[in-house]
Design brief:
Largest sheet: 4 strands, antiparallel
Distance between the termini: 76 Å
Radius of gyration: 31 Å
Number of helices: 1
Strand content: 35-45%
Helix content: under 10%
């Protein structure tokens, strides 16, 4: 499932250049019971009922249970939200220190009703997602209680200032990338393991944007798979470049399903009637197929296990959400599949039940309506975990020995699609509680007697001193010392006005000083490293600036830029006209 969002907030008028036909509900050749009918839930309106200041909103992704996540503008900041069938819509707690928060992807529910939601916190609504400051975010939300259990700042890889979390698997792997905040290039892929709470760098030459339950990841035109080495580090295997469809010049993948199929957007290599390059919505199975190509605003965003694709297409004077149904090989405008019909500008994600999340002006969830035929009965052995099945083949639906109550081992799936726990294990009972005073540092103890476990005052963050252990086997830092912070070094800058004029001094924070003394001298004190701008200003019309002397002697104009590195002096010389 998705999730390369196209933030489209405006409509454009353009000439239609049709490559594949767009089919409408009820058109000739279509049987109405072969296509879905949707009930519309406008999450944006539900948000506005609770928060009247709500502006535009986006439903970015949904899971197999229909839990939908996204973000909305409220009081000129982004707020992440989650919508569930049980509790409706609510805002997620934002990351500390980040005023705007966006949720872009969500896992399926686990046995306890928990879901993992990922996105990012950023410094403001105007932060550029590629160069602005941001931190990858993780929310653990319990749908059984309707509460956020944890809000986690994933942070960045060492040496980077910003990070984005793009997708999360049911196994608890969050993928994304860290980046240098002021540069588009130089990004490094990353994976955060929710089970161990560890962040790992991964060696890929693309920005990972989606992951499936087989640990396959995609980004740009690349597809790869995550594995672990013997030390628990994540490594990348089976990396391949899928290229682009024939006769196209560019491709960008957006989603991958459990079979490794991908969807993406391509540049077709020709223009529409208005001179814009036409984009195509494409899908890769064993080769590329262009599903539709109509305008410069076309995109393929979400993809489910059956190969159905959702996205957007340019038609007449608007961008419109579409659904490509794999079983029928046809494309539908989603506005015609709703009862009653209603406009929708873009679709971002689709689950295996056929539910769709979308909307860039107002967040929308499309549920299958009463007129939609029921899904086919569950088939054990088709690789899909249907109602009444614990698992199906290698698809364990995110479960493990631990999640079903054991301490470890290898969970598998039986022939009747129930869990096989024969290889799951239960750990022996825990060892006796630690004894403080035996000289051994046990769990829950910092130290024991003279055994400080290799610690010292400096390893605990102090500057010096003598660390000891108290009678409770906890560190005693009473004799550790923290040095006072060093005082900043300063220097004097002496400026002299020779003739009729003055010198204006500007500091980086906008502070201004002026030496007005005609044929006089002023002295100012600054911290080392302060950058200053000196401006020589003649007195009225009878004087003119002639030249600088001293530190600014190499400057030819009236403005001199310098940096304080020690005591210094400069003179501005003015002569009569």
């Amino acid at each position: 499932m998705n999730r390369n969002l196209k933030h489209l907030t405006c409509f454009f008028i353009f000439s239609i250049f049709i490559i594949l036909p767009v089919f409408f509900s009820g058109a000739e050749g279509w049987a109405i019971d072969e296509v879905p009918t949707y009930e519309r839930i406008t999450i944006g309106s539900l948000l506005r009922d609770i928060y009247p200041q709500t502006g535009i909103s986006t439903a970015a992704a949904l899971n197999e249970q229909g839990d939908t996540v996204g973000y909305a503008i409220i009081n000129n900041q982004y707020y992440a939200f989650v919508y569930t069938q049980e509790d409706g819509v609510q805002l997620l707690t934002g990351l500390d220190g980040w005023s705007s928060n966006l949720a872009v992807n969500v896992s399926d529910r686990d046995a306890d009703g928990r879901i993992f939601i990922v996105g990012r916190g950023q410094s403001s609504i105007y932060s550029d997602p590629y160069t602005g400051l941001s931190h990858a975010a993780l929310w653990i939300f319990n749908t059984s209680t309707g509460n956020t259990e944890e809000t986690i700042d994933i942070g960045t890889l060492p040496g980077y200032q910003s990070s984005n979390a793009e997708a999360v698997s049911n196994h608890g792997l969050v993928i994304g990338y860290s980046r240098v905040s002021t540069s588009i290039g130089g990004n490094t892929g990353m994976v955060y393991d929710i089970n161990t709470r560890l962040l790992h760098a991964i060696d890929v030459n693309f920005n990972p944007i989606d992951i499936n339950e087989n640990h396959q990841i995609i980004g740009n035109t690349m597809r790869a798979r995550l594995d672990q080495d013997g030390l628990g580090n994540y490594i990348v295997v089976d990396q391949e470049d899928l290229g682009a469809p024939p006769n196209t010049s560019w491709a960008s993948l957006s989603a991958i399903n459990e079979s490794g199929w991908t969807s993406g957007t391509t540049t077709m290599g020709f223009h529409d009637g208005a001179g814009r390059m036409v984009h195509g919505a494409s899908r890769y199975i064993n080769d590329w197929t262009v599903l539709w190509a109509n305008s410069s605003f076309d995109s393929a965003n979400g993809l489910n296990s059956f190969g159905d694709v959702v996205g957007a297409i340019g038609v007449s004077s608007a961008i419109r959400a579409v659904l490509y149904i794999e079983a029928l090989g046809q494309l539908y405008l989603l506005e015609d599949l709703q009862n009653p019909p209603a406009f929708l500008d873009v679709a971002h994600d689709i689950n295996d039940a056929g539910w769709i999340a979308g909307g860039n002006g107002a967040a929308v969830l499309l549920k299958l309506g009463a007129d939609t035929p029921p899904p086919p009965p569950a088939v054990c052995g088709d690789g899909n975990v249907d109602a009444g099945e614990d698992c199906d083949g290698s698809n364990l639906n995110g479960a493990s020995c631990i999640s079903v109550g054991f301490d470890g081992g290898l969970l598998s799936c039986a022939a009747d699609c129930s869990f096989n726990t024969n290889n799951c294990v239960t750990d022996p009972p825990p060892p006796p509680p630690p004894v403080c005073g035996d000289g051994i540092v046990d769990a829950g103890e910092d130290c024991d007697g003279n055994n400080l476990n290799g610690a010292s005052c400096t390893s605990l963050g102090f500057d010096s001193g003598l660390l000891s252990c108290n009678v409770n086997c906890q560190f005693d830092t009473g004799n550790c010392v923290t040095n006072p912070p060093p005082q900043p070094q300063t220097a004097d800058l002496t400026v002299t006005v020779d003739g009729g004029g003055s010198i204006i001094i500007r500091e980086p924070d906008g502070t201004r000083s002026r030496c007005r003394n005609r044929n006089g001298t002023c002295t100012f004190n600054y911290e080392h490293g302060t950058s200053l701008t000196l401006i020589a200003k003649p007195y009225k019309r009878r004087w003119r600036f002639d030249h600088w002397e001293g530190r600014c002697a190499q400057t030819t104009g009236t403005t001199c830029n310098l940096r304080i590195i020690g005591d210094d002096q400069t003179t501005a010389v003015f002569t009569r006209k």
